[in-house]
Amino acid sequence: MPELIAYSRLILMCFTIAAPAQHAGRVTDHLPHADTTNVMPGESAVALSEGEADSLPVEDSPGTRISADSLHGKDSLLIIPKQAHDTLGDAVSESGPVYAADTSYRFWQKPFWGFGAGWSLGSFPLFDLWKDGLPDSLGSFALPASVVFSRIAGVDTLTDTVAFVYRAREQPDAYSINFPIAVSYTPYAATKQRLSIDATFFFMLKSFVASVQVDTSITLPGTATAFEQLVEYSQRLTLYSFSLGATYKQHISTKYFTITNSDVTSINAGVRVHPLSIVRLKTTADMPGSMPGGYKSVYTLIGTQADGYASDALGFGAGVSWRIGMTSLRRLENASGIEAGIYYAGQWFGYFYDGGERIVRSDINPQAGSAKALTSLSHRFVLEFQLLKGKRPPQIEVASPSPRSTAPSPRKEPVTDETEKADR
Question: What are the backbone dihedrals phi and psi of residue 394, each rounded to the nearest 5 degrees, phi first?
Fold first, then answer.
């Protein structure tokens, strides 16, 4: 009796799930002994022969499962949702191999590119030498504190006194900061070390502005204190440098040292050659079109002194640098990441020539009075950030189609009243 109840329940369930399957456009009436699971409208379906479905439990609704063993008949088909079919694996794959990215892939263990920028702070004797020679008083311009001269007013000859005032309007920056940019390529990358080559460019600029003015309260008695500008004097020192170099990076084992959220931490050492370095010193002295009060003699005096400061020197040199530091790499995507580094860097520049003549220290600072060749050795602190771009991870086969079994499944005898009575 229990078997009869179970068999009746199975028939009712088959009729229940047959209606949605037909509503979805699946025609099964022409197939003998066809049975279906519940296929929702709009879903695609995949047909499996009875031999393939024997071992697949099919869920019709929550809490109700149908065993494929109860579905029999030589030409029976099992209709299952396409979404479920995709998850069955190799045994039911009909669309060919399935591929996915290799999750064990590490792009930094293959050749990759880097694009970055940095921040550098430290000493720079070249700029210190220039700063020490900047004018700081009227004496630097060879001007007296005041000038007495005569002028004719009608039939009288008057004597006037013109007082000069020196003012520094813009002082050079106290710190020597630059922002290098770099492009790197890593041709050799392994599990424990890397070797990179790079091209770097940076420039550093400092400027100074001063003025020589006339105190009109002395020149024009009875007026409030005021200053008329006679000369605006400025200097600008710029260094440009281009370098080529290589950096060796040794990865640190996580057993000894690690940084939170970092995939790789490395100790680095590198060297760079600066085949082209340019130093430029530009000096200007701008004069007004006319003197206050028409004092032509004062204008002539100031102009004569100012003409000696107008120049533009340009020198070409070379240099070498080295650095030691630590970097931390973090992966952003399968084939890209970001790397941050902190370094000590040493830089030496020299062999500057202008028109075939060696540039000496006194060319940068007239007060140095030295005929020594211009050189500069600096020690600097560097922060560097790079965006890394490598090769995409290889695609590996995670599922492949397997040949379908063509052997017919054993035919299950239908349950009849006689067999049921015999079982009892």
Answer: -70, 150
Which ranges constitute the DSSP H helices of 74-176? 82-86, 125-132
Angle at the Cα of 316 from the Cα atoms of 114 and 284, rounded to 5 degrees: 110
Q: What angle do CA 335, 337, 340 make, to 5 degrees?
A: 155
Question: Exposed, middle or buried: residue 236 (CB in 10 Å: 0-12, 13-18, 19+)?
Answer: middle
Per the structure, the complete domain to which residue 93 belongs is given by 2-100
Q: Is residue 111 domain-shared with residue 26, that is, in the same domain? A: no
What per-residue confidence (pLDDT) applies to 248? 97
Are 288 and 329 found together in one domain?
A: yes
Cα 364 to Cα 374: distance, rounded to the nearest angstrom: 8
Q: Three-class SS of residue 360?
A: strand
Domains: count for the chain: 2
Query: In whole angstroms, how large is the CA radius of gyration of the chain?
Result: 44
Looking at this protein, which amino acid is placed at residue 358?
A: R
Going by pLDDT thresholds of 50, 70 and 90, the confidence category of residue 122 is: very high
Pairing verdict, β 58-61 and 264-286: unpaired
Please give the angle made by the CA atoms of 31, 36 and 38, to the nearest 5 degrees: 150
Decide: 125 and 378 in contact? Cβ < 8 Å: yes
So what's the pLDDT on residue 113? 95
Does this model's pTM top 0.85? My answer is no
pLDDT band at 359 (very low <50, low <70, confident <90, very high): very high
Q: Which of 53, 82, 100 is the last residue of a domain?
A: 100
Contact predicate 75/32, CB 8 Å: yes
* Cα angle 93-34-408, degrees, rounded to a multiple of 5: 60
Check: CB of residue 214 under 8 Å from CB of residue 298. yes
Burial label, 151 (beta-carbon count in 10 A; 0-12, 13-18, 19+): middle
Shared-domain flag, residues 183 and 303: yes
Measured between alpha carbons, how far is residue 61 from residues 65, 83, 108 in Å? 7, 15, 49
Give the Cα separation of 78 and 207 in Å (integer): 85
Pair (209, 183) in one structural domain: yes
Task: Count H helices and E strands in the chain, helices first.
Answer: 8, 19
The confidence score (pLDDT) of residue 80 equals 43
CATH number at residue 178: 2.40.160.20
Q: Is 351 part of any domain? A: yes
Alpha helix segments (H runs only) across 140-257 = 216-219
